[in-house]
C-alpha cells in the first residue's frame, strides 16, 4: 500500500499530472500548475487564467490545437496561410507570435529563429491533450523573457490514464481528410503511448496553400521507484505544403517540405509530499526546404531552427506557511536563414537563467507570491523580470488579486541579424536590415482581478482589469537607399512605446456533468505611436467574445454551439481585416458496442454565418462541414 501511495503522489506532483477533466471544474478547489510552477487553487493563482479541459476540447469540434485558443478571452487566432497560423494575446503580433510563451508539459517549444510556434506541424495530437492552462498576462518571472504577453501550457494525458486502442477518421469540405491511430499500454513499470496522424487540406480561399502532414507522437513513463519516475516524449512530423503566392511571375506558388523532431526527457524525484526535484532536457529541430523563384531569379528560403535546453527545478516547503520553487537552466539556440539573414552560416545564441518564486500564506486569508527570473544571453547583459502578487480570500467563494510585474522579450536570432536583400511579395515585399543593437522589449503591468464561485460552486467567474506600459518595442522605421540596387532598405530597430488598458470577463457554468457553458469577453485599447509600417494601436480588436455551450442528452447524444466575435484589427505589417462573427455547430452520438468497445459519431459545421477574413483581406476559410467517426477499445 505504501508503494502505491508513493507512486500516486509522484504522478500528482509531476507537471503533467492527470486529473479527470470531467471533474476538474466540479472540484471544490480546482488546481493549476502554470502560474508559479507550484500547484495552486485557481482562487489563489496570481494571474488571470483560462483552463481548457477535455470536455471543452471535445465540445468545440476543433480540427487543430490552435483553434482551441479561440475559447480564451483576449486571444486572436489567424491563418496567414494553412501552414502558418498565429495565436496571440492582445495583438502586438504578426504571423510570428513572439510575445507568447508556449510549453508542452512544462518545456518551451518557442521557435528559435523568429519566435512563435509552427502549430501546423508540431508533433502532438489534439487527442493526447489532458488540458491547457493559459495565463492571460505576462509571466516572465516564471518562464522567462519570451513570456511577454501570456503563457500557454499544454498538459498531455499520462499514459497510465489512457490505456487501449483508438482510431478516428474525419473528412469534409475543402478536400479535408484526417485519420489517427493511437495505442497505449503497460509493460511492468513502463507505460507508453504511440499516436499517428495523417492530415491533408486545400487551405484558405484565394491562395494556393494546400497541405499534407504526417505526425508521429510518443510518450513513455517509467517508474524507477516509488518516489522516482522518468518521462520521455518523442515526436516527428513531415509536412508537404504549397505556400504563398498567387501564381504571378513575381509572386509564384512555392512548394515547401518541412520536417521536425522534438524530444524531451525528464526525471522527477519526490522526496516527500512537500519536496520535489525535476530535471529535464529538451531537443527540438525543424528543417524546411523551400526554393523560391521570382521572375527569372532563383532564391533560397531554406530554414533550420534547433534548440537544446536543460533545466533543473526544485520545490520545497520551507515552513508551514511558506513554499518555494527555484531552478536554473541553460539553452542553446541555433538557426540558419539564408534568405532572411543574407548568409548561409549558422547563427547561435546561448542563454542562462535562474528563477525563484516564494508563496507565503499569512493571516489565514492572504497569499503573497514574490518571484523573479534572471537571464543572460549572448546578445544581452543580465536581464531581470520580477513579479509580485497579493491574493485575498475574502470568503470561500470570492478572492481578489493585485499584481505588479515587469517582463522582457528578448529579440530572436532572426531579428538580431535580419538582412533581407531580395523582395518577394508573398514573403516580404521590401528590404529590411537590423541597424544597431536590439534591446529587450519591456512591459510594466498592473493588474487587479476577482475570482468568484456561485450556485454551490457550479459557476466560476474571473474578472480582470489591467494597465500596461510598453517600452523599446521593435519596429521597422526609417530607411536608407541601397547603393547597389537603389531600393530603400528599412531599418529594424527598438525604441517604440505604447500603453494598453484592458478589461476581461470569463464565466464557466457546469451545474452537472451533462451541461457546459463557457463564455468570455475582452475589451482592450492600445495607444501606440504609429511608425512607418507599424500601428500597435490597431493590432488588437477593441472587442472580442467567445461562447461555447454543450449539453449531453439521453441516449448519449451531445449537441454543442460555438460562437466567436472579433471587431476590426490589423496584424502588424498587414492590412486591416473587418470584424467577424463565427458560428460552429457540433452534433455527436456515442455508442457502447461492448463493455470495452465504443464508437463515436460527429457532424461538425464550421463558419455557419459565412467565411470571414483570417489574417489578410480576401484570404479566409469557407463554411465547412465534416463527418467524424472514432472507435475506442479499452
TrEMBL record:
Annotated localization: Cell outer membrane
Q: Which InterPro entries match?
A: Beta-barrel_TonB (IPR000531), Beta-barrel_TonB_sf (IPR036942), Plug_dom (IPR012910), Plug_dom_sf (IPR037066), TonB-dep_rcpt-like (IPR039426)
Domain TonB-dependent receptor plug spans what residues?
A: 42-151
Keyword tags: Cell outer membrane, Membrane, Receptor, Signal, TonB box, Transmembrane, Transmembrane beta strand, Transport
Q: Report the Pfam families cross-referenced here.
A: Plug (PF07715), TonB_dep_Rec_b-barrel (PF00593)
Q: Which residues form the TonB-dependent receptor-like beta-barrel domain?
A: 170-601
Which GO molecular function annotation, any one, does this entry have?
siderophore uptake transmembrane transporter activity
Its chief place of residence is membrane
- Signal sequence: where? 1-18
Q: Which GO terms describe its cellular component?
A: cell outer membrane
User: What is one Gene Ontology biological process annotated in the Swiss-Prot or TrEMBL record?
Assistant: siderophore transmembrane transport
Domain of life (superkingdom):
Bacteria
Keyword Transport carried by entry: yes
Q: How does it sit in the membrane?
A: Multi-pass membrane protein
Family, per the entry? Belongs to the TonB-dependent receptor family.
Q: What is this protein called?
A: TonB-dependent receptor
Amino acid at each position: 500500500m505504501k508503494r502505491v501511495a508513493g507512486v500516486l503522489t509522484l504522478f500528482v506532483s509531476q507537471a503533467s499530472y492527470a486529473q479527470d477533466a470531467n471533474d476538474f471544474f466540479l472540484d471544490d478547489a480546482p488546481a493549476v500548475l502554470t502560474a508559479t510552477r507550484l500547484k495552486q487553487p485557481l482562487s489563489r493563482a496570481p494571474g488571470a487564467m483560462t483552463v481548457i479541459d477535455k470536455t471543452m476540447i471535445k465540445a468545440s469540434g476543433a480540427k487543430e490545437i490552435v483553434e482551441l485558443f479561440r475559447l480564451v478571452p483576449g486571444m486572436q487566432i489567424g491563418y496567414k496561410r494553412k501552414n502558418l497560423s498565429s495565436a496571440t494575446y492582445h495583438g502586438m503580433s504578426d504571423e510570428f507570435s513572439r510575445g507568447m510563451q508556449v510549453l508542452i508539459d512544462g518545456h518551451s517549444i518557442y521557435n528559435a529563429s523568429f519566435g512563435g510556434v509552427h502549430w501546423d506541424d508540431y508533433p502532438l495530437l489534439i487527442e493526447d491533450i489532458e488540458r491547457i492552462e493559459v495565463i492571460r498576462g505576462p509571466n516572465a518571472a516564471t518562464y522567462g523573457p519570451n513570456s511577454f504577453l501570456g503563457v500557454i501550457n499544454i498538459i498531455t494525458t499520462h499514459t497510465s490514464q489512457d490505456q487501449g486502442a483508438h482510431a478516428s477518421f474525419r473528412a469534409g469540405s475543402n478536400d479535408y481528410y484526417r485519420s489517427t491511430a493511437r495505442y497505449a499500454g503497460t509493460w511492468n513499470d513502463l507505460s507508453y503511448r504511440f499516436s499517428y496522424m495523417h492530415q491533408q487540406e486545400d487551405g484558405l480561399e484565394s491562395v494556393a496553400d494546400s497541405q499534407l502532414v504526417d505526425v508521429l507522437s510518443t510518450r513513455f513513463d517509467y517508474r524507477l521507484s516509488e518516489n522516482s519516475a522518468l518521462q520521455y516524449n518523442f515526436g516527428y512530423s513531415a509536412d508537404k505544403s504549397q505556400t504563398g503566392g498567387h501564381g504571378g511571375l513575381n509572386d509564384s506558388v512555392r512548394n515547401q517540405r518541412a520536417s521536425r523532431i522534438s524530444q524531451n526527457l525528464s526525471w522527477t524525484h519526490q522526496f516527500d509530499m512537500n519536496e520535489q526535484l525535476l530535471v529535464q532536457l529538451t531537443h527540438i529541430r525543424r528543417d524546411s526546404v523551400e526554393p523560391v523563384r521570382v521572375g527569372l531569379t532563383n532564391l533560397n528560403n531554406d530554414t533550420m531552427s534547433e534548440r537544446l535546453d536543460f533545466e533543473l527545478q526544485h520545490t520545497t516547503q520551507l515552513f508551514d506557511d511558506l513554499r518555494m520553487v527555484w531552478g536554473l537552466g541553460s539553452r542553446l539556440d541555433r538557426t540558419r536563414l539564408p534568405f532572411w539573414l543574407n548568409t548561409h552560416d549558422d547563427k547561435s545564441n546561448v542563454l542562462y537563467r535562474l528563477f525563484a518564486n516564494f508563496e507565503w500564506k499569512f493571516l489565514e486569508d492572504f497569499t503573497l507570491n514574490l518571484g523573479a527570473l534572471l537571464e543572460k544571453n549572448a546578445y544581452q547583459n543580465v536581464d531581470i523580470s520580477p513579479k509580485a502578487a497579493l491574493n485575498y480570500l475574502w470568503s470561500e467563494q470570492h478572492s481578489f488579486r493585485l499584481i505588479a510585474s515587469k517582463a522582457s522579450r528578448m529579440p530572436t536570432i532572426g531579428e538580431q541579424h535580419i538582412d533581407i536583400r531580395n523582395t518577394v511579395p508573398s514573403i516580404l515585399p521590401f528590404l529590411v536590415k537590423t541597424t544597431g543593437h536590439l534591446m529587450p522589449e519591456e512591459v510594466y503591468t498592473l493588474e487587479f482581478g476577482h475570482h468568484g464561485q456561485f450556485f454551490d460552486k457550479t459557476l466560476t467567474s474571473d474578472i480582470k482589469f489591467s494597465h500596461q506600459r510598453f517600452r523599446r518595442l521593435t519596429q521597422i522605421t526609417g530607411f536608407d537607399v541601397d547603393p547597389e540596387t537603389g531600393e530603400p532598405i528599412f531599418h529594424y530597430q527598438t525604441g517604440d512605446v505604447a500603453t494598453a488598458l484592458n478589461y476581461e470577463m470569463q464565466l464557466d457554468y457546469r451545474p452537472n456533468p451533462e451541461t457546459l457553458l463557457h463564455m468570455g469577453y475582452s475589451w482592450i485599447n492600445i495607444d501606440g505611436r504609429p511608425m512607418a509600417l507599424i500601428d500597435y494601436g490597431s493590432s488588437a480588436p477593441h472587442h472580442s467574445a467567445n461562447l461555447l455551450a454543450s449539453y449531453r442528452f439521453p441516449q448519449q447524444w451531445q449537441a454543442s454551439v460555438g460562437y466567436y466575435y472579433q471587431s476590426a484589427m490589423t496584424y502588424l505589417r498587414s492590412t486591416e481585416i473587418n470584424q467577424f462573427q463565427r458560428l460552429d455547430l457540433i452534433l455527436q452520438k456515442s455508442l457502447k458496442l461492448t463493455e470495452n468497445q465504443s464508437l463515436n459519431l460527429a457532424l461538425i459545421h464550421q463558419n455557419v454565418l459565412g467565411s470571414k477574413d483570417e489574417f489578410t483581406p480576401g484570404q479566409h476559410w469557407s463554411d465547412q462541414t465534416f463527418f467524424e467517426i472514432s472507435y475506442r477499445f479499452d
